[in-house]
Amino acid sequence: MIAELPYLPPEAAFAALADTPGLAFLDSAAVGDPRSRVSYLCLSPRATLRLEADPYATLRHWMASHTPPTRPETWPFPFAGGAVGWIGYDLAREAAGVASRFAPMPGLPGGWFGLYTTLLGFDPEARRLFYLGPEEDLPGITARLQTTPALPPVPPLRWAPEMSRETYREAHERLRAYIAAGDIYQANLTLRFIAPRSDGLPLAAMHMALRRLSPAPFAACIQHEGFGLACASPERFLRLTADGEVETRPIKGTAARSDDPDDDATAAAALHASPKERAENLMITDLLRNDLGQVCQIGSVAVPELWAVESYAQAHHLVSAVTGRLKPGLDAFDLLAATLPGGSITGAPKRRAMQIIDELEAGPRGAYCGALCWIGFDGAMDSAIIIRTLTATADALYAQAGGGITWDSVAEAEYDEAMVKISPLLALGQ
Known about the structure:
By secondary structure, the protein is of the alpha+beta class. Helix content is 30%, strand content 30%. The protein starts with a strand and ends with a helix.
């Protein structure tokens, strides 16, 4: 059934339902961003799936094994039920045939999805809230929505860097040596911080704290037994419509925000004009054109937007758009298989960049730099690159950030850029 309910902001509904097992919150939290029009609370998954190998075929078979409900004609939102979850970077790298010297992150699956047919859909601009799901579940949900529970504050977190500034500088210079030798043109080098997770510290509380510090169009909180993600991603990975239209929006190029409006505008203009940042963005845009070309109709792949500046809480970013139309007979799983891991968080050429990343980084990436997705029963999909994200296991919290390294990159500037990106995560509990 579908019912319109008295409007409640998505963050308030999330707080009221935060202890629901298997909850997935797709939280379009950025203000004034056209991609932030709709948020979803996905409740009570009919089934769950841990991914450890062959993710695309496994996910396709799993979804096909569940009879999809008929899409209600009056449901006003793009997602009307299906799979919600993530495919981690390490699983996608392995599926692409690139081995790692690292063991998998303890306590975290390679990927995870829930199958949802009970949803709350939010349109904050129109101040409308809709319920989709079994009629018998509605009274209990509406009763919960009328409560106003307070999530606990996030206590101080003891973050420890896995890679020192000096070790990062050494890795940066080794990467530039690979560029000089002609192995690659660019690779994404990241560094990670780890903190113990206090007993009973809910992921929902950390997500709400991160949301206040860094509202983002592709924010999300996905929690399961013992692990989960609190995400503030600004980067759309793949959008696929039910009739086969594809869009990807790679981010490459960053400038820190300033509290002074004039300085902030100057930083954005300098980012847009920078030959280095434009070249870095163009390399990855071309890589995404090639990836989409594997699964899109000949002649359909285009770049309708190049080097746009998008501004978020901590940084301006240089963003381009690549579009195409999927070949007949192919689906979201073929599209994911052709494009994961995403080019903006690997480098060019992709395969060699992933090998060098594994050599130079200090540990596995886990879910970080993978893709967080909803995949509808109707074949549509939207997804984000898992960046600006807190990864939680039962015992530990992980925060990670980095950037694309080219021949013109300077280690100190790249390290500082990574610290700008990771700053809201490290500020949790402060």
